[in-house]
## 1
Amino acid sequence: MYLKRLTLQNFRNYTKSEFEFDKETLIVGPNTSVKTNIMEAIYLLSTGKSPRTDKDVQMLKFGAEVGRVKGEVDGKTLEVVLTAGEVGGEKAPTKKYLVNNVSKRRVDFAGNLFVVSFSPFDLGIIIGTPSIRRNFLDEVLEQIDFDYRVAIVEYEKGIRQRNSLLELTRKQLHRDLKQFEYWDNLVVKYGSIITEKREALVAYFNSQAKEIFDFAIVYDKNVISYERLLQYQEEEKIVGVTLVGPHRDDVIFEMYDEETRTAKNVKFFGSRGQQRLTVLQLKLLQLAFFEDRRKESPVLLLDDIFSELDERRINHVLQILSGREIVFTTTHMEFVPEQISGKMKVITLT
């Protein structure tokens, strides 16, 4: 898979800019040059979502009515159009997806460009909240699995509607069983698909050899079923939200402690270096999963990797990633090992 060109119009700090990419492209500039915005734009073309915000309007340049992110990928043109909800005084969708100028749903748009991203913020997968770890599972599966994308959309819609009914029930002290029946059926159906596919992904990760850092993943699944919804019916009536289902899943990363001969949670017992290596290994497992399932290599986004890892680790990672398209960012050229800096196309931001 090859990303040839990226065009940004009224996206974040960019009024209108175009970037061309090679097999290995290095983006250099100070932190204030918001190199990460370019990475965000590429990710947006891949998933149809931002990895940094769930509010589309935040990606739109301040004061602009319309913004665009466009990319040329393997002979296809992918485009995301952003608005603040109004264009020329008329109501407009905040986000629109196009493939070769043909409008698409997000579930059909995602999957035209695969990316694996690594950035300092990914440490949150290990040390952050369960929602960040769930988002990582979604990031992996939504890119390559159409059924999973559909299941996530339908499940989230069902949970929103069901929570509205629960809040109404909490206020009125009366539960309309007929109203709940449809949404219960929907969340059980699609929630079960999400659980099954997340479980298979974790099993795949655990089955693979780990060259950088060895760990195991425990899938702490929150199963949704008619029986469990009934079991928590009274508690849900009190709090007004759905208490069971994959929206409450978590995953735990465990490393083996030779001294105590026990498995320990990397979040609580791993050093910061071990936590970083766990994230890096996890991203390499994501890469292997994509290539195994789709038989093609994704675009790799390595944001500030040169300041995160020592030279030995960097060389090891680059050896593993050899032959794939990679977009790097760094604040200073001197962070980049000399033996590789001369091979890259360099984009300098000021």
Note: DSSP finds 13 helices and 16 strands in the chain.
## 2
Amino acid sequence: MRELWSSIIPGFSFSWSQAMVERSAPLPMSIDMRIRPCFEDGLESLTASKLLLTCPRIRTLRLSGDRVDILSILDHLCSQSPLEVLDLWVLASTSDDIDLPVALFGGNAPHFRHLKFETFARIRAPGWLLAGVTHFTTGAIFSVRELLGALQAMPQLEVLCIVENFNLWTDPPDRVPPQRATLPRLSLLSFRDIMPNGLVNLSSRIDAPPTLRRHIFWQMGKISNWDERARTLTAMQALVPGDSALGVNDGGLRVARMGGYEGGSFELWSRTFSESASTVAREDALFLLHVEWAHGAPDPRSVDGLTAYPSPSFLLASLCVHLRTAHIEDLTIAPETTIEGASAAGERATDAPDTPDAAAQWQALLAALPSVKTLRLHRGNLACVSVLRALSASAEPLFPHLQRVFVVHSVVHSVAPARRDSVCVSGAGAGSSVASRKFVQANVGAELVEAVSGRSGLEVVLAGCEVDEEALDALQKRAQVYIGHERVYV
């Protein structure tokens, strides 16, 4: 099977790499090459690396190494190439400049479309190579002026991803503002780990179609001063699309999705260009913010050394206030990827009641989403229980416009009031089930019944749930209940 030999990754010796080239013929090849001596699994011989790259079938090439060795390899590639993707990961300081050879590929790479710079070093590519690029990813330290100049040389650009560039700030007042970049084909502008002021500054200087999608991805660890960080989000409001027409009221953010109690991710997105936002339109949203939270670390000041810092979920209410989330209509509470409420040994655990502070934080978060019409609870976890408790316990009505509640792959059992805080293990055999399936599921039955009480016309959809007759009967007295397979509704 030639396909098995068509991708060379780090760790192979030169002789094995040669064998792979022979055995993959005549298929296109993808080569990920680490060049001596900075990698333990790299090719030690630079000459061997150059010989490997004489294969005329290479379509994707990723080179990792120091500046001198990378340039030595690229200088060797001086004949016409069918290459489509070039990815450079350079070990270099931010002060190093790397100019790609003008004669790279003999000035002729007719199929070249994807260019990626995984480095902080300043890399410059010849204009002829940029002219056909459709996908450009860079972590290089460009100023706004330099980056816009490079983008102007990419008239075919469709996807631009800027990664960890902290140099995209407003130009000093004594300098002439940089030129604008006109990118008539640009469809996606993606930012990863860039603060709001920088991305707004760059985005405002790119002339692109009104269908341009702006997607932002952040990773955040423990934050000591969230209020200071949250205030900078105000600048991001300029990137959220407005209404598509006068009186339509479909602008702003429409969908939210968050992880479980201990952390995870939080997403907000807007409508698409062609239709209102929905859970199936995430990739086509005109604006998307994805925040990846780090789990709380042990607090050294605690008595037992095991108490975690407050859940990142408790910071979301502040984030929502700064991003104007008043029109979000669809909210999903998704499970964590880690085991919730269970030890690695598969012991049965208990879900302690929300503390007063935690309950208040949940209510503050839900109060920041007053327009929610559809609530989706996935694989009953502790966050799902907390949300339902907040809905039923709040003095002020939360989600006054709620129409439908989806409960997906959860335990919905009737329990006595004294056992409301127990955790039900999904499946038969508590210990073996947790050990094999790697999660326990909180019983959301009592909380769900209380949350839907007093809401006229509410629909409850139980998709792929484990539900008993007593809980089902209690729900049917308070709402219109539908039962179906998970795939039918999600």
Note: The longest strand covers residues 58-66.
## 3
Amino acid sequence: MIRRTLKQLQNMITVENDPAPYEQVEINGVCIDSRKVKKGNLFVPLKGERVDGHRFVEDAIKNGAAAALWQKDVPNPPLHLPVLIVEETLSALQELARSYRRQLDVKVVGITGSNGKTTTKDMTAALLSLRFKVQKTEGNLNNHIGMPLSILNLEEDTEMAVLEMGMSSKGEIRFLSEMAAPEAAIITNIGESHLLDLGSRDAIADAKMEIIESLPHGGLAVFNGDEPLLQERMAAHDQTLTVKTFGRGRRNTLYPVFIETGNEGSTFKVNGQDLLFNLPVLGIHNVLNALAAMLTANHFGVPFEEMNEAFSTLKLTNMRMEMVQGAKGEKIINDAYNASPTSMKAAIELVEKLTGFSKKILVLGDMLELGPQEKEFHYEIGKSIDAGNVDYVFTMGKLAAYIAEGARESLPEDRVFSFLDKESLVKELKKRTDNNTLILVKASRGMRMEDIVHSLQ
């Protein structure tokens, strides 16, 4: 993580005051939450809608922070403490990350897409770790606040950084890419997330393509070649990049020629390699995420022959197709971190194909940010459920009620339940589970469906 004196920081960001008495104070890492301050941190107080972090500057320093930033329009700065006054603290945080990134001898892989960013990040980092010292975005620190924290957390001797880039509007990916300065970029797919903000899949594709703009001459662009929206835009782009594609289609640079799915993951083969890969992650869609990671790692010198070593110890970020056990011994797929129509359909299809269970139950919540067609998207999800391979459907939320409505077209009324509170849902759900039950729990992040998983454990 960043280690610099306050004097050095003055050469990295614009400072409004003269902190000469403290210029040899050294900061070690950056923190924006005064409750999580560690010894030596630079505390960056952010002004939120409800809480102003400046209220906690003195406490942060008392609890071990070496120094703090202070926004100049906030009155009464504690000048008796090592404080750097800046125009605006969030902009200063971003400026510091941008400057630090350019001081590091590190190659960055940037990852964006409507679905699968975090899983692809985890896979790419695991594969690159076979050859390099690697760091990756922790958790979901992938926005205009999280990205600078991820960059400032990089060690000076890190060789490869795998950074996830999220967005909700046009221009955000461009901003993050300019800060991260990637040598390689992955676009996992174009889905329906953010239709509320961007209005169309075309606009989403345009926004995701912003990651390509910051690549250097000869930089690597990896994208889902089965997506026409990405094919069209990449074909019109500057051809000085190294472009590689992945997907099911045989025109892609890398595609699967064999996939076998099971209750513990997938085995697959790819074109051009006489190797059987073992991926301990559920879902065919995650095989495609693995292909993106494999192309990227191979570009940087990781042989395909060694990749199973990384897959065998792969650890995914929590709540991404995470298999856990309930109190009765039931198997629960906790995929509660996020949801879109594309990812929800993939998860449901996975459950429909898994065998060896006496009962399979879907617990589905609202998918958010889908725009004017949100009700239709939910209804179509329910309508697509295969009644022959799913025993019960439980929904949670006002929008998810339309999933239930669609599901009733093929499932009997007594196999579909719709709820507006989790406690009632869990009570009814527990009546139908045993040690040979499989349960999928999935919804958008705002629904906090992990509460249901925890109630079953």
Note: The mean pLDDT is 93.
